[in-house]
Amino acid sequence: MKQAFRKAQYQIVTVLIYNKGENSIAMLFDFIVILTILSRKIPSFLYQYNIAKCLLYFYTVNLALLLICRVFWNCYSRFRYVGIVEVFSNYLTMCIAPFFIGSELGISMKNIIVSIIAIIIYYIISMILSSWYGNRKEIINKISHYIFYGVGIVTLITIPIGYFLNNNMLMGLGAITFAMMGTLKYIPYWLILDTTYRRNLIKEFGPIGIEKSAIFASKKKSK
User: Which terms are listed as keywords in the entry (predicted)?
Assistant: First the structure.
């Protein structure tokens, strides 16, 4: 089971390739958060103890760093831990996004916590299925399709309908299912960093001679 889990992690490594697109996504997220804070459309408890102010400073500095990274990309992309600014930014956004979205949709704190638990459970189930996939392909293949694609279909249906009907309940359901799909990328997002763990995964499961660097891999893949 341990080896199967590591193989599932390797499959994530082959997908999480860091490039300019990821840098742009991180900048977009930071910009949206900054606008949200400035518009004061966030939960009131974030204004206590100057949390909102600290978040505003953090995201402003982070956005500036991301822009600097983009301008000096040729030099920046050679560092071993390239992408570390994006990793910090995305993980903090993962923590505060449920409260931002929940506040905008009028979702209570209790329902936000329940939704977060459901999202975490979804990720755990997806990792278990991915780990079992290699050994029990015939059974798990159909189950995983129903779970993964089913959640994706619900997302594509509920968000547009909720938006046009101005229905917060459908919008909330769509946001939850969208977050479920997003966990498959953003929870293991640290694997884009050229760490020893990543290198060992590539050495164990990857083709012989594959470059360990995430940046080199993205350039090679794009060619």
Answer: Membrane, Transmembrane, Transmembrane helix
